[in-house]
Amino acid sequence: MKVDTKPFGRIEVDERQRLTFPHGLFGFEALRDFVLLDSNQAPFYWLQSIEEPGVAFVLIEPSVFRPDYVLEIPQHEREDIGLNDDDDSEAALVFAIVTIPEDQARMTANLQGPIVVNKKTKLGRQSISTNAKWLVRHYILDELEAVRSRAC
Q1: What are 140-149's contacts with CB under 8 Å, separation 24+?
Q2: What is the mean pLDDT of the chain?
Q3: So what's the pLDDT on residue 57?
Q4: What confidence score (pLDDT) does residue 45 get?
Q5: What's 72's domain CATH number?
Q6: Of 108, 109, 114, whose CA–CA distance to 130 is shortest?
Q7: Measured between alpha carbons, how far is residue 53 from residues 3, 33, 135 in Å?
Q8: What mean pLDDT is predicted for residues 142-149?
Q9: Residue 105 neighbours by CB distance under 10 Å
Q10: Structural domain containing residue 65
Q11: How does pLDDT run across 4-16, given as a tens digit for each residue?
Q12: What's the half-sphere exposure (Cβ side, CA atoms, 13 Å) at 147?
């Protein structure tokens, strides 16, 4: 299918990249249909709205910069997209929305509001973590540096 995108213009996208968010995303509840795109810069992805080409989010997997990240969301929200507690590592994709300011070294990821996708059903939702440890702004580069420091 052809999709108009914010980062790449009009592109051909495999139907398998299509995701449905029955409740939308926080602040974008009316937008339900998205595609997950690889970014030109690993380890990032794009979550592109199919309905509104100007709406796209940069995503990152939390484990990239926080190996200790554990998805902790209410059970009913897992069930809403067809997941149970045992499914997370096998059937779920977990992302954080990235905010990139003018000074890119200060980019942050929202671990308090993770995006969870059931790989089988292609259903997703944004949830609120039940663990107060995860904040709206985690400085990605600072946390990557901390991980490297601990590894040495």
Answers
A1: 140/60, 140/65, 140/98, 140/107, 140/108, 140/109, 141/105, 141/106, 141/107, 143/65, 143/66, 144/64, 144/65, 147/65, 147/66, 147/67
A2: 93
A3: 98
A4: 97
A5: 2.30.290.10
A6: 114
A7: 8, 11, 28
A8: 86
A9: 9
A10: 2-151
A11: 999 999 999 999 9
A12: 14
pLDDT at 151: 63
pTM over 0.90: yes
Task: Take residue 60 and report the two structure tokens written for it.
Answer: 């990152």
- pLDDT at residue 51 tops 70: yes
Q: Are 50 and 2 in contact (CB under 8 A)?
A: no
- 131 contacts: CB under 8 Å, gap ≥ 6: 70, 72
Q: How far apart are CA 77 and CA 83, in angstroms?
A: 8
Q: Provide mean pLDDT across the span 43-70.
A: 96
Banded model confidence at residue 81, pLDDT cuts 50, 70, 90: very high
DSSP states along 33-83: EEEEEE-SSTTEEEEEESS-TT-EEEEE-GGGT-TT------HHHHHHTT-
CA neighbor of 38 nearest in space, from 68, 7, 80: 7
Q: How many domains does the chain have?
A: 1
Say which residue the tokens 């709206």 belong to: 136
